[in-house]
Amino acid sequence: MTPTDHNKGLAAGLFCFIFWGFAPIYFKLIQHVPASTIIAHRIIWAAMFLLVFLAIRERRRLFNELRVTGKQLLILFISGSLVISNWLIFVWAVNDGQILATSLGYFINPLVNIFLGLLFLHERLNRTQVVALMIAASTTIYLGIFIGEPPWIALALAITFGLYGLVRKQLDVRPLIGLFWETSLLMLPALLYLLWWLPANTDPLVFDTTTWWLLVFSGLITILPLIGFNYAAKRLTLSLIGFLQYIAPTISFLIAVLFYGEAFTFGHKVAFAGIWIALGIISWQPMQRLLKNKAHP
User: Fold this and answer.
1) Is the model's pLDDT at 253 over the cut of 60?
2) DSSP for 214-231?
3) Which of 140, 193, 239, 250 has the most crowded CB, counting CB atoms within 10 A?
4) Is 262:100 a contact under the CB 8 Å cutoff?
5) CA 279 to CA 132: how far, in whole Å?
């Protein structure tokens, strides 16, 4: 790996995580549209944009690259259902003025991944990971007590995305190919919803031209950061990718509090402080290894 390749990978990684961090602003622009309608459009247009991108990238190899087995399709349907559920919760929360909850959810996600690895993959935890999980769990419970109910949105986002990662880990399918199948398999339900269920069960929704274009490009904003992420993942270490992933929820956190004025209560301060401490604990050893490798190439 040359320094130039590393720098390109770092630029791509920064692009995708900064992009994801500012994503709530995009969905705020169409908050007058029901979240389920936004997701239906996102599924359809993401699949279409992905097909165009893959056709340009793969050319004659496209059909061979898209070939998967029946078992893989079933697993991709399950993983697709999980990631679409995650998108739906995220968009609904953003449009309901709860960006702070989504930020907390994506901060919790790495810790949920550790727990799922312990539960399903029989991975062993070291002492620092155990301490981190205990701190994160206790401060999250405190937030639930403070607000009078569990932080459902944050937990749902962290768990659905964690389960999505767990399911995809079992598949030997390239990320963008997998996402194409995940969205394509759910295109029919999305189309039926938009063409049949929605008009029959709601008042006619008349969107202006800007809204329609924003719905169309919701597919593009889905795949653009993923393309950047895939480019970065091939050129950066997993440890560095792990640190970069905290950029997105940090930006969302700042947007929620400083730009949209969401309430940042004492309970939120305790919860976020606990999560940040926990993330710092589990990141310490990978950071040391990364710095050591930098010092001794």
Assistant:
1) yes
2) HHHHHHHHHHHHHHHHHH
3) 140
4) yes
5) 7
Domain ranges of the chain: 3-295
Could you give the CA distance from residue 16 to residue 114 in angstroms, rounded to a whole number? 23
Angle (CA) 13 16 22, round 5°: 135
Confidence grade of residue 132 (pLDDT, cut at 50, 70, 90)? confident
Q: How far is Cα 147 from Cα 49, in angstroms, rounded to an integer?
A: 41
Look at residue 245 and give its three-state secondary structure.
coil
Sign of the torsion formed by the C-alpha atoms of 127, 129, 135 and 137: negative
Residue 51 token pair: 């097909």
Cα(173)–Cα(66) distance, integer angstroms: 9
Please indicate, yes or no, whether the overall pTM of this predicted structure exceeds 0.85. yes
Integer Cα distance of 148 and 71 in angstroms: 43
pLDDT digits (tens, 9 = 90+) for 98-128: 999 999 999 888 888 888 888 888 878 778 8
| CA gap 119, 112 in Å, rounded | 10
Confidence of residue 191 (pLDDT cuts 50, 70, 90): very high
Residue with tokens 């767990």: 166
8-state DSSP, 149: S
